[in-house]
Design goal:
2 copies of one chain form a homodimer. By secondary structure, the first copy, chain A, is α/β, with parallel strands linked by helices. Chain A has 11 helices and 16 strands.
């Protein structure tokens, strides 16, 4: 099969198109012919050397949509011909999805939503599982107002839709007028600009100065300080990125809770794998019910140009998910 | 009545014994004759100028045990002669307990445990409510192992007992051999010394290297880095002190949750007051059932020597709670 191989960590030029043996599924695995893969920010960090990555040489890539072609011993949940999607590769001990085939742990897959193309389905798994697990931590009350930082990003655009489906009032923080329009199309009730709007201003405007009782911060890092500032007393914050040194004084003064969601840990730590497949089944049901749709960047890439897809995502110019068409 | 008055923020010498008018209970308040008060670390910070403190001149002190002598309009939960305990003062908008009387919001009080002296009861409220709210956040599973940093401190000694009552296995982190003996008497299954034991060592010894799924960090601050290091993947950490700048990389890599408990916020924010009285009723039931007892420092102080009581707590030489006998 054809695949992009990484022999050494570094830039996107380190991804080399090559021919390798098609793998054979072991016990609990299925062989999937990949039709589309999507790029996530963590793929780029792993390419650069993040320690959770696979031993080199390796095939990178986490998200896929494709068709089962063979099942390994003990697999009863899928049969050849099933269209599936999942976040099934790209980290230590697993294969990668920037390839024509992958042997995937069957627990990480679910039947693909019937009303999506392979491109659309491949955009969902990592981001949707992350959003879902974060929503479980937030435990929004119906009618509660939630602030979503990065409301049109890979995770954020799903959070906005899940929060609306849960009956919340959603304020999306975005970085441009174009993103503001998009956030409203996704269902956001109102929008703030995190470049030009002061936290104190939008806290006053949207919460009467009390602060947000629930915040989903998909930017994280240095932005966490803004989330602490925007939070109400006893507020809950979920983030997907806490790789930062930050002052927690506001967490103290407001008695806040901070939850970090890092879904790849549930793949590395095998105890989390069955939960991932189960979440994707629930995500598929919401997609089929018209409550959730992936947001795709319009650019098209192939396996050969997947390094450009990573650069496109890394540039910050992409909107929603960047997808690679493989078959 | 006699009271210690603070005219300006600063050291314990700023607490001046004075005669002031005995207050009259307003609607929803009761007048309590204070028999004992206890000192908490936050009292010292408030004396030094922490912004949550009352406007000066003020009477400081949060915890009390005493007897109701008069009830204000609308109070049905108490009558004159009732022995009560509570954390009812010391912050903005409220009276203080380093005095012979206080008018207390009745929601903040509960009937005193029948098997305790006033001294013992006064030791409990702030620490017990803090421990209780933290345990609610931790949501320990029966049989789960919990690491308690500061296992013989004001909050920690209650956490150890609540965790045992919840069926958990308790590892107490303490700072001396004497404290280790005490922690075992309180019910700790095992003890580590946070000065001499490396985190990696006790994680290996008590969790097989996986880390603790639940940690109650009553030290907090710079110690939070140790809690992050000691945590298992997906672990939950509760702390009573996050006034610190800290690297959250370990929170990210392990997908941790961090909850800050700051019970005084529930007094400042009136919405939390009824919950405090309710928790103290449940605490009293546990005390009366023999599942929980306060740990009192053996030193005795009076209203006139209460500044020395604050110094004694501040010195770090006290064990458990420092109490002031008032009547």
């Amino acid at each position: 099969m054809r695949a992009l191989l990484l022999y050494e960590h570094g830039g996107s030029d380190k991804l080399i198109l090559a021919k390798v043996a098609t793998p054979t599924p072991g016990a609990g695995e299925v062989l999937v012919e990949i039709h589309a893969a999507s790029i996530n920010p963590v793929d780029i960090k792993i390419r650069e050397g993040l320690p959770i990555g696979p031993a080199l040489p390796a095939i990178l890539g986490a998200d896929l949509a494709g068709v089962v072609v063979m099942t390994g011993e003990g697999v009863k949940s899928f049969k050849p011909g099933d269209a599936v999607y999942g976040c099934a590769g790209g980290v230590k001990g697993l294969g990668g999805t920037l390839a024509e085939f992958i042997t995937a742990d069957a627990r990480l897959l679910a039947p693909m939503p019937a009303n999506l193309t392979f491109r659309e389905a491949a955009a969902l798994p990592l981001a949707a599982i992350t959003a879902w697990q974060g929503m479980e931590k937030l435990a929004l009350r119906s009618g509660e107002t939630v602030l979503v930082h990065g409301g049109t990003g890979g995770v954020g655009h799903i959070v906005v839709q899940l929060a609306k489906a849960a009956g919340a009032r959603v304020i999306a923080a975005v970085g441009s007028d174009e993103a503001a329009v998009l956030a409203r199309e996704l269902g956001a009730d109102d929008v703030v600009n995190y470049h030009s709007d002061a936290v104190s201003d939008y806290v006053a405007r949207h919460t009467g100065g009390i602060g947000f009782s629930a915040i989903f911060d998909t930017a994280g890092g240095a932005n966490l300080a803004k989330s602490f500032e925007a939070a109400a007393p006893f507020g809950r914050i979920v983030t997907t990125n806490s790789r930062v040194t930050v002052n927690l004084g506001n967490m103290h003064g407001k008695a806040l809770s901070l939850h970090v969601v890092f879904m790849l840990l549930g793949m590395l730590n095998e105890s989390g794998r069955a939960a991932h497949g189960e979440i994707l089944r629930q995500v598929a049901a919401m997609v089929e019910a018209g409550q959730l749709k992936p947001l795709l960047d319009p650019a098209h890439f192939t396996l050969a140009t997947a390094p450009d897809a990573q650069e496109h995502l890394h540039s910050g110019d992409a909107r929603g998910k960047v997808v690679v068409d493989i078959a």
